[in-house]
Amino acid sequence: MPLEKLNREIIACRKCPRLVEWREEVARAKRKAYKDEEYWGKPVPGFGDPRARVLVVGLAPGAHGSNRTGRQFTGDASGGFLFPALHRAGFANQASAESRNDGLILKDIYITASGRCAPPANKPSPDELNNCQPYLEREIQILKPKVIVCLGRIAFERVLKIYSIRNAVWKFSHGAMFSLPPLSFNLHPSSLLCSYHPSQQNTLTGKLTVKMFDTIWKKAKELRDE
């Protein structure tokens, strides 16, 4: 229930005029390949297992991915790389994610993002990310995850802000792991695990390979089970 209430607040959010205008314009204009579909065109909430011990934090919805489907990492190339990996690791019941009604079920994992609206050029501003920050903090407060997997540097920096850790102390790199200090609302030991984002910019260039990504989810399971 707390997650459902939070997600209703996220969906109704209109804090960032630039993002509201952009996400709704994209939903009206549509991409030719999806001209017959109804776009979501609103902030995209997190989704997954409400009792998850693993929390995945991405960047922001894609204009014609999550902004179209209304579900994180669903319907775009990043999700096409992420969900097969989650399926291989046992976190998902299927390897594909095309729509909110495709039967996908996540197991012991919850997926969210640093920003909830599709940004122009896929680049939310610092102020826009700050507007979304309380949503991420509340998700951590509700879920109390044992492992947080950050997909990309921005997600990493957003989590560090919640834990009051300076970037100069901890450095982002693929496969980096850190022990998170307890919070007032999350006292049990937890871990932070870093991965490159599964964007085409990383996957098509070989910066992030299938083997590298599978190693992240294997490690996430080990940390979860410690």
Give an overview of the whole structure.
This protein is an alpha/beta fold and 226 residues long. Helix content is 39%, strand content 12%. The protein has helices at 2-11, 17-29, 66-69, 77-89, 126-143, 153-162, 200-203, 210-225; strands spanning 47-48, 54-58, 109-113, 147-151, 177-180, 190-195. It has a six-stranded mixed beta sheet with strand order 1-3-2-4-6-5, with helices on both faces. The longest helix has 18 residues, at 126-143. The two termini are 28 Å apart.
Global morphology? globular
Top-tier CATH class: Alpha Beta
Main β-sheet, spatial strand arrangement: 1-3-2-4-6-5
> What percent of residues are in strands?
5-15%
How many strands, what sense, and barrel or not for the largest sheet? 6 strands, mixed
What's the pLDDT, averaged over the residues? 96
CATH topology: Uracil-DNA Glycosylase, subunit E
Helices, by number, come to 8
Return the string of H and E elements: HHEEHHEHEHEEHH
Summing up helix and strand content along with how strands pair, one would put the structural category as alpha/beta
Helix content: 25-40%
What is the total domain count?
A: 1
Q: Any idea what the CATH superfamily is called? A: Uracil-DNA glycosylase-like domain
Poorly predicted runs of 5 or more residues: none
Total beta-strand segments: 6
C-alpha end-to-end distance: 28 Å
The CATH architecture assignment turns out to be 3-Layer(aba) Sandwich
Radius of gyration: 16 Å
